[in-house]
Fold this protein.
Amino acid sequence: MPEGDTVWRACKRLNQALAGQELARTDFRIPALATTDLSGRTMIEVVARGKHILMRISGGLTLHSHFRMDGSWHLYRPGERWHGGPDHQIRAVLETAPWTAIGYRLPVLELVATDDEDSVVGHLGPDLLSPAFDRSVAIANVGSVPERTISEALLDQRNLAGIGNFYRIEVCFLLGLHPWRPVADVDVAAAVDLSRKLLKLNVRNGTQVSTGVDRPGQRSWVFERGGKPCRRCGTTIRTGELGEPTRQRITYWCPACQPQTRRPQTRQPQTRRPEAGQPEA
């Protein structure tokens, strides 16, 4: 699933291309918006809120979308071939004079009143990439359920918005936290601060890196490295599933660098992630 830094960069590109432009044609290919025509309106701005995309349009409307696992927005010049996927995966077409924005495989696409944006993003905690990020609220949110695992608390977008599986896993490794460690036994402020630091660094870098080495195969400490030796100590990295049965996420950790007395059930490493539900977004 694209995380906050990826969504922020997508919104920045969309905003640079579309803000201030009149919509010459719109085409929504989902039943709920099939008869909606926004042509003649102006795209005011495109902003990110955690992992959510808000396209604010004149007349007091906001087009809300979310990538979930594999959605995306692509920009094309007039006459350029669309190559983000087959036509049946297109969910939205927003055409202006200089650019056409195509939304592919968007599982969330809806039109709401701009004054009512809280109905779709009001549940989110402080946005890690926002200049107005409220650190104290984020820390309080993450620490509010002491018996919860740190992994679940960091992934819960109601606590703080923008962090996903990559950052949660790498933050736990860098702080020496077993992924099942209860929040009560964690320096929550350190976890929040490191999460924000990594997201902000990678917004500028354009890739997700936690090791400081921006080369293929070397960007993460433990993420997607199940069965391989830990870069720090050489111990074999383990994998497991964390969360409620309908929202399980695969996790990776080094049992030597991230120890915990009570060991959770583990499984053999695998290269593909299991299909599972999503955490609260």
